[in-house]
Amino acid sequence: SDCMNVMAFDTFSALTLNMHCGMEENFPAKLQTICLAISEIKPDVIAFQECVQHKNAPVVQMNHDIPIKEGNLALQVVQCLKEHYDLTYDFYFDWAHYGFGDWEEGCAILCRTPIISAYSKNVSRMQDTSRWITRKNVGITTRLAGSFIDIHSVHFGWWNDQEEPFAYQLDRHMETLNPAHPTLLVGDFNNAPETD
Question: Do the beta carbons of residue 24 and residue 30 sit within 8 Å?
């Protein structure tokens, strides 16, 4: 397509990581390891799933009209990269549901180029934020090598889930694609490797 012809750059790197809500054992040390790895590979784009902020934490900034709270995992990574490695990333985060009761859990995108626009989309039938099967994906538009590109951080339901199947959520997500820009979907697709 015409969109693919305008994308001309030598290298582009993307990293995706399910943050598991920061609930893993010894997570603060793991977060430092994540930042070190990012500083070494310097991906153009980073997509987080199960990225969280505590529901009762104070709001420390507004980010594309979304309240970002103290302790937000994406914000922590952005701050660590700037402070310790002199790397600047713009970011966007939005949450879909409460994880572990008190954590606003969702997806985030970190980008080395400025975010021009950002958006989120509920892709699940379920819209109840108290249910973990409620899914919302996030997307950004940025410029790489002088051309617009859309990048989405996605976290879909399991391929075989009867209540919230992957196929339904993927179809809903595809409705968000802008045909004027190439789009990269990065994230946790929750599919078995042999799934078509």
Answer: yes
Task: For the chain, give the percent of residues with pLDDT over 70.
Answer: 94
Q: Which of 78, 76, 54, 52 is nearest to 155 (CA)?
A: 52
φ and ψ of 167, to 5 deg: -60, -45
Element (H, E) at 69: strand 66-69
Residue keyed to tokens 């594309």: 64
> Which residue stretches of the chain have pLDDT < 70?
1-10, 195-196
Question: Which helix (H) or strand (E) segment is 106 a member of?
Answer: strand 103-111
Task: Please state, as a whole number, how many other Cβ atoms lie within 10 Å of the Cβ of residue 144.
Answer: 19
Distance CA 96, CA 127 (A): 8
